């Protein structure tokens, strides 16, 4: 057999990641850049080509059940996807009891890059980022894949201003013709669409479009818009901005399993335009509203969204934020979090 | 669903030539008392995978994927230096996960234990340790180079053949919805076909073609040819078994051929006699249809030939241990019967189990002196494999 049985002492460890000779020779770990659904993500340098890659180590040791099915899903999905706006999986490496996924390296993630204030995104830049995200989603949905975890830290951006969707740990293929039951315990709370909060288990790519709407707003406000602390609160936060759904705007809501449990106490008006017109242009507001439509059947699809007047008619035309090349440092949610924690610590000690 | 075959790992890395197949068996041949017996092992193991898969209530697709995983693993490993039974269990476990129908590892272990402990498989004690399967799975994933997307001929079959009648209540009905990756109508115009028109197949004929594809996994074809060619070869063979209704063909003759010439060993064979010939209908020229497909017809013919040879081999193999050769259940193979091969009888699972055991023993005996482990000239090098696949 090609591989040697796992031994305890082989390979040097950096940040607790044992690397066997093969992977250690080829890739040198530079730093940790993230925490995926099932393992840490490192920045590493290919010692031959000098280029950087992202190494994602799949945690195996805790798995008495063998290869994690989520990891398998992500590998299968990524191997069958090829698009400019989807992160590229270069190869898989197996060594020393661990499986590594080797990705193209991306300098920033959206959460990180929005939190910095050296580089200011123009409206044309934001339009480009929004369009690239939608292009990635349109491709995934065309391929029959729902991402199910669209959020700032899973949207990667490089210094050429290219945006790519990443972390397919929760993604899965769906049947285009026949809708089947899936778990509703997906999508990070702040980006979770109301139908999932109401307990729907039969759903499709529309769930990603709600998350995309949240991201679109976040591009302008620089921070997540719906920050609930639990499911019930999340619903409240959404209703406070977008108003409570009515039988007109969302006729199927009543039939969802948890509707009675989380239904609004008193009707609230839609305050969206009033709150966001200072951030966004009229066409941008229109598109965001179509993405954040309560009724999943009426929510705009990724392909439709790409052809919205916001992109096709309204000035300025989209332009990639190529100026990021001059941005100092690399901005990932992980560092942003650490930075915040450090600041807090400093505050509390002084 | 997703994935384009022509840029897939299946096409780029896992279609090999016959020399590679032969090399992969080099060590086994060295330790086998009669290399001829090795030819039966693909049938033996594929039947085992099917049996285990049926016990686990797998869809046909999962069984097919597990078989492909098994074949790919043994491109890089020898039967005699591994435990094929553990590999089979791991392949089934992995395939179920890869095909989105995971089964708990305990269930796999329990079913494997009960199946492999049967006398015909040498009453082997199968470890009930989950960790063993999990570990084997890890080596399997490694040797598969994490290429878990496998294409199968079923989808090509269904996209080429529309069912004539709707009276088919075949067990495949449920599966047609969920064929997973494959070359199908969703992938744009068939570059290798006319792009229009479908073959008119009776339900019985479709069932036959489906069964022939199932049977093709008893051979090594899934390593040699792209799945859509295997599907076309299966359609071609189906035409021989269910002659299409052409104006000039007499129904009686057709009935005769299909009754006699058909090899009806397949486990999923339709039980109803082919009625295709009995109902004369508007003519579709199947020869022209096949000729119009932009595929290598010599390759299709080669596949068809290979399937027929596999059936010939399968005829000499019997799952029924009772009609097997007496005495071959013991590892030593007492008597001339075993050593000289079954006399007139069939090759049986217990016979092959004994052959395997002797191969393992021979290898251990051979390796016990300080001799460096035999290096097999197997294409483990990706680039080499690719070159071979291309050439």
TrEMBL record, chain A:
Presence of the UniProt keyword Signal in the record: no
Keywords: ATP-binding, Kinase, Nucleotide-binding, Serine/threonine-protein kinase, Transferase
InterPro entries assigned to the protein according to its UniProt record, in alphabetical order: CDK, Kinase-like_dom_sf, Prot_kinase_dom, Protein_kinase_ATP_BS, Ser/Thr_kinase_AS
Coiled-coil portions: none
GO molecular function, one term: RNA polymerase II CTD heptapeptide repeat kinase activity
PROSITE patterns reported in the protein's UniProt record: PROTEIN_KINASE_ATP (PS00107), PROTEIN_KINASE_DOM (PS50011), PROTEIN_KINASE_ST (PS00108)
Annotated protein name in UniProt: [RNA-polymerase]-subunit kinase
Organism annotation: Hypholoma sublateritium (strain FD-334 SS-4)
Gene Ontology CC annotation, any one: cyclin/CDK positive transcription elongation factor complex
Transport recorded as keyword: no
Automatic annotation (TrEMBL), chain B:
Intracellular or extracellular location(s): Nucleus
SMART domains registered for this protein in UniProt: CYCLIN (SM00385)
Domain Cyclin-like: 47-142, 198-305
GO biological process: regulation of transcription by RNA polymerase II
Keywords assigned by UniProt, alphabetized: Activator, Cyclin, Nucleus, Repressor, Transcription, Transcription regulation
One GO MF term attached to the UniProt entry: cyclin-dependent protein serine/threonine kinase regulator activity
Entry's Gene Ontology cellular component terms: nucleus
UniProt name for this protein: Cyclin-like domain-containing protein
